[in-house]
Design a protein that fits this description.
Layout (H helix, E strand, L loop, with lengths): L3 H15 L5 H15 L2 H12 L2 H21 L1 H4 L7 H4 L11 H4 L1
Amino acid sequence: MAAAPLLSIILGTYQLLNTPDRLQARVGSACTFVTGAAAPLGPLAAGFGLQFAGTMPLFLGFTVLMLVVAVWVSFDPSTRRLGSLPRPRTALRGIPRPRTPSAKEVS
């Protein structure tokens, strides 16, 4: 749970650096929609789990679920291929620099 905000920032930065400028708003809106739609599922699952299974089985079930997800992400090759974030100089290469006018253009 403590790593969720950090992971969110890392993935958000990665998305911002790799999404073309013309698609930034659409990708951001889609991400917000998906996370907003999925947010109520956690409390809903916990409520059903408490009602039908009880406290201890629910706790053990979520513990096993978190363990399975952690092991899966640790050994999934696609998480190892996530490229590193570009350095600031690399990120600025695509931005055109203003042209300095020549002496003939100024006078």
